[in-house]
Write a structure and sequence with these properties.
The chain is of the alpha/beta class. The chain contains 10 helices and 14 strands.
């Protein structure tokens, strides 16, 4: 929400913020804070909550709306783009991802796999830029699976209101069931669970999924290609740097990626070849207000944050005066 309304208001626009039907509270609280603590004139920042997707579609089609900035699934993003076409409005899209975490053969395997497990579990895996494909050297595959499973098993699903919780519940029963259907599919495709694979037995409230490591599949499996949006990490073997990069780029998405190597130059060379909008090299922190964020391919159009994100909310004009 803040990545959208901040630059939009700074650029001099009025804003209608429409949160997803399942997550209205954050936007509503932002509206309350703006009303209580800013001098924004009435009508400049408007918060519209609804459990009906038709409301979002109405805003997208409305000719009075000059620009739509949408974050969500690629399928919905296509619909948003199509709905904006009749009025030829500007559409910014930050969509899905199936990002790869590349571990090169000289990397600290245990450290890299631990980092991959952590990032795949944060926010219960409900993040478009989360790296959910762990791509590791084939001759170290079993060790990588064991290391990822050990790290993932140590992440216990818990109360999201407690500061120490890494992995909370997914947003709804529908999403929990969707994630579980992908876990069932992984077994049908010939994979196995190195850890997890279901709902935690000690959680009788909330829509929890165990942090799960899937092994035994390659990059052609659906669970390795489709966005699951849960705490699920699929471990895939590679046969060298070129093959690792090929696997990472063999995706309809292109949002983010990670490269771990003991050689910074080697890691940078691999990062430059990834067709994604953002790359983390050896644990670099990339999500920042001054760093443009967005994707290649079907992960979106345009950028949020940074100067590029601010400029999304501007229109260029040339005024030529006779002298």
């Amino acid at each position: 929400n803040l990545a959208k309304i901040g630059p939009a208001l700074a650029a001099g626009n009025t804003v209608v913020l429409k949160p997803a039907p399942d997550t209205p509270w954050c936007a509503a609280v932002l509206g309350e804070l703006a009303a209580a603590h800013t001098d924004l004139p009435p009508g400049v920042l408007n918060i519209v909550t609804s459990d009906d997707h038709a409301v979002g579609a109405m805003l997208t089609r409305d000719p009075r709306v000059d620009m739509v900035s949408f974050t969500g699934s690629t399928a919905t993003g296509r619909s948003v783009m199509a709905a904006g076409a009749p009025t030829v409005k500007k559409v910014f899209l930050e969509l899905g991802g199936k990002s790869a975490f590349l571990v090169l053969d000289d990397a600290d395997l245990a450290g890299a796999c631990s980092m991959a497990a952590f990032t795949a579990s944060v926010h219960a895996g409900q993040g478009c830029a989360i790296t959910t494909r762990l791509v590791v050297p084939r001759d170290r595959y079993d060790d990588a699976v064991a290391a990822a499973a050990a790290a993932m098993s140590g992440i216990k699903p818990g109360d999201p209101t407690k500061p120490g919780t890494i992995c909370g519940p997914v947003i709804s029963a529908r999403q929990r069931d969707r994630v579980q259907s992908y876990l069932d599919l992984a077994i049908d495709e010939g994979g196995r669970f190195a850890c997890g694979g279901g709902s935690p037995a000690d959680r009788d409230r909330g829509f929890f999924i165990e942090p799960t490591v899937i092994a035994g599949l390659d990059n052609t499996a659906r669970v390795a290609r489709e966005e699951i949006f849960g705490p699920v990490l699929t471990v895939i073997a590679h046969d060298g740097d070129d093959d690792a990069i090929r696997i990472a780029n063999d995706s309809t998405y292109g949002l983010s990626g990670t490269v771990f190597s003991a050689d910074p130059d080697r890691a940078q060379a691999a990062a430059a070849r990834l067709r994604v909008g953002t790359v983390n090299v050896n644990g670099g922190v990339w999500y920042s207000a001054d760093a443009p964020f967005g994707g290649y391919k079907q992960s979106g159009v345009g950028r949020e944050m940074g100067l590029a994100g601010f400029e999304e909310y501007l229109e260029l004009k040339v005024i030529a005066t006779a002298v």
